[in-house]
Amino acid sequence: MIKYILTLFLTLTSFEIFAAASLPNCSNSDLSMNGANEDSCISTCSAIADYSSAQLSSNNNGFCIGNATESKFNIYKVQLGTSTSAEPTCIIWNGDFEVNKSSYAPGSSISIPGVYQNCSNGTYDTVFLTISRNETFAADTVFPDGSGKIVRTTSTFGSDDIDDNTTPSDYVESSQSHSDDDLPYVRPSTGWSNIYKKLSSTPSSTDLASSSNAAMIYDWAKLHPITTSGGSNYYTNVFSGWYCEDSNGNLCEKLDGDNRLLIRLTSSVDGVSFPTSSGIEVTDTNQPGWDIGYFGLNTSTERGAIFLWRNDSGTLKYLGVKPGDAGLQVTISNSNVE
Q1: Which run of H or of E encompasses 50?
Q2: Which of 17, 79, 171, 257 could form a disulfide with 128 if both were Cys (CB 3.0 to 4.6 A apart)?
Q3: ∠ CA 304-160-321 to the nearest 5 degrees?
Q4: What are the tens digits of pLDDT across the range 257-304?
């Protein structure tokens, strides 16, 4: 196969397939701290703070969206395959590029150097992306209670030196009043499918206005084995070793080495685009080109971080924080080769 150096482009867009961060902000009766309208709009913490009807009532938990001032991860590889096979069969780009979503506005482009490799003749309808399992992020927002107080990411549980991503009891505390400092992640109960990085040793109402946003590391691989009281959050019987979000294996992830995630995306996933409905036909004169768009966080609206809260008998306290989901669109295009 012919290999050559090519300058590729990563366009940061406002389109998102893993989460609803590209949607407009919720307002008035659409505002919710339990995700009730997250398919149509986003409830930011500042909007909740201005609308008392959406604020948490006593002894309830909820979340809202804050502003990420840093959101970094790496892209290592773009590959193609077929929807009938679990693994990729063709590498079309190989490199190591760090993306900081918070540095770019939607629509901006970044030049990405790397090695481009031709594919063998055939039809491909599935994209495989290799990215870092860890995301480094920093964020802040207002208390969603109208108090004007500020919460920020903190250094207390900022690092993540727990490699285990198979035994949640080794790194997640399911509690509304967490107290085990050996467990850096938290969720209010086993009924929650998301886990958050703790912001302090116990839930706190301390105003962090005079502090600075600290960088925190979030390990996306630690989400894979998380289950709720109703069962598993992923289908694990579609492809061996993979965690899939549907029974057809259209959107799946698995650990690839010690510090990388491999993401499998078929043409059936919203946001994945191929030249035709059947994929892309590769020939000696038609090779695949690609573009990956990640959600740009440098905007005038709150985006990029999810803060977890509890109303503790009338006192609003922050429990944890996590980065917003990846937010990307993938376009595979025809590239003529002479």
Answers
A1: none
A2: 79
A3: 30
A4: 889 999 999 988 877 889 999 999 999 899 888 877 655 555 555 678
Amino acid at 318: Y
Contacts of 251 (CB under 8 A, 6+ apart): 244, 245, 263, 264, 265, 266, 269
Q: From its phi and psi, is residue 107 left (phi > 0), alpha (psi between -120 and 50) or beta? A: left
- Collect all residues with Cβ–Cβ distance below 8 Å to 298 and sequence separation of at least 6: 102, 103, 104, 105
Model pLDDT, residue 337: 67
Residues 6+ apart with CB under 8 A from 310: 56, 59, 60, 61, 176, 188, 203, 316, 317, 319
Amino acid at 307: F
Compare 334 and 329 and report the one with higher pLDDT.
334
3-state DSSP assignment of residue 325: coil
Q: What is the C-alpha separation between 126 and 268, in angstroms, rounded?
A: 9
pLDDT value of residue 302: 64
Residues 324 and 158 sit within 8 Å (Cβ to Cβ): no
Q: What is the mean pLDDT of residues 107-130?
A: 82
Residue ranges per structural domain of the chain: 3-336
> Cα(151)–Cα(306) distance, rounded to whole angstroms?
12
Average pLDDT over residues 210-234: 93
Name residues whose C-beta falls within 8 Å of residue 165's C-beta, 6 or more positions apart in sequence.
Answer: 133, 219, 221, 222, 224, 225, 255
Answer for the pair 134, 64: CB distance below 8 angstroms, yes or no: no
